[in-house]
Specification:
Blueprint (H helix, E strand, L loop, with lengths): L1 H10 L3 H24 L5 E5 H5 L8 E8 L4 H15 L4 E4 L3 E7 L2 E10 L13 H11 L2 H17 L13 H11 L2 H8 L6 E3 L12 E5 L2 E5 L6 H16 L16 H11 L2 E8 L5 H21 L4 E8 L3 E8 L7 E8 L5 H8 L5 E6 L2 E7 L5 H8 L16 E3 L1 H5 L4 H8 L9
Parallel strand pairs: 2-5, 6-7
Antiparallel strand pairs: 1-2, 3-4, 4-5, 7-8, 9-11, 9-15, 10-11, 12-14, 13-14
Helix pairs in contact: 1-6, 2-4, 6-7, 7-8, 8-9
Length: about 450
Amino acid sequence: MDIENDVLRRVSPSPTQRARVARVAGELLSEVTEASKSEGEAIECMLVGSVAKDTYTHPPDIDIFILFEASTSREHLEEAGLRIGRKVLTNGEERYAEHPYIHGRKEGFDVDLVPCFKIDSPVGLKSAVDRTPFHTRYVEAKMSTSQKQEVRILKQFMKGVGVYGAEAKVQGFSGYLVELLILKYRSFQGTLEAASNWNHGTVLDLGERGVEFDSPLIFYDPVDASRNVASAVSRNAFALFVQAAIEYLRKPSPAFFFPRKQKIWSMTRVKKELTRRRTRILAVRFPRPDLIDDDLYPQARRSIDGLGALLSSGGYRILDRTVCVGARRVTLIFELEVDRLPLVQEHVGPPSWLPNSREFLKKWSGRAVSGPFLSDGRWMAIVERKHSEAAAFLRAEAGKAALGSGFKDVARMKVLSHSQALNAGLQQEFTQHLDRTLPWKRA
């Protein structure tokens, strides 16, 4: 189709770009080899990922794996791998997958230098990253030149609809999973046609299957059938891709590949929308923890779940919630039916025939606003609420919530009531929360 041909033209590397990527990758391989020798390490290094497989959209990340002998200790692999990486990427930073590696930049490209064990078969896996060289070799051996173009189109489609990337921020489809989908269904169109009929729990493979998985999508790794390549795909990412496939097949548009940017709402529009809904906002702000995204996002989601459960236990009904991660702060937005409750609440006690009913009577006699009294055989009392306003409740009780480890210092947490949130300059956060337009439908 003309749309897909145009997409391919826009995302494929030009001959000049290809030559530059190849040169930088070659230089990195040479530099890693030399740094290894200076460390006294007789090791191999290998270009992996989309650059090695020629399935990248421009500009690519460049991934170099440093292969240590399988007899190497984990401690030595980590220490030597980091030293080698720092010699090559002098301004790089240490990051962590199953073990540490060095991330940095060279001539405008993001670069990862990752130590792993050199093994003969994934059966002898010593670290999760040890599979990656096998993934590279598998795709190189199986994929045709024309299918590499189909991979580029599918990757851009997934980027456009917001489901590309297995990292915690996205919880979507990895590059390797995209490649396997093209190997499975032969083309971009074939993949969308199949995906439009997927159901939750769809199981795919290119041969062998292993243990059962409970995931929205299961794709058995052809180099290690004990692994689900689609394990990172969340329910939302799965559902969004299926919906995008259905709508694109029905009415193709470049907007699926290159959607318009989300327009930030004015505060006038935000206030008008909240007035129309007659809902109340509660915003909770934390200084951004010093964590990589793959740790930060799960902890932020855990925190919004923990605070949400606490609010629900206090009688506040949550209509919607949003995690907003900024450069300096993390903001958790709760949209409530109401943010003020009656000054009193019902307190349910035990049936009158149970021994502990005496304790209930002793505790609430003379203290309850009304009661204790019997209702359908149980003791009841109408008692005062300790906190009848949501922000005050959360400020007082947040220490009881199950929070992510980077968010446990509630002394650094700032709770904003509805009126405070509307005057706190949260336009971007409010837009993210209130504007749920699908990317390809943005005006």
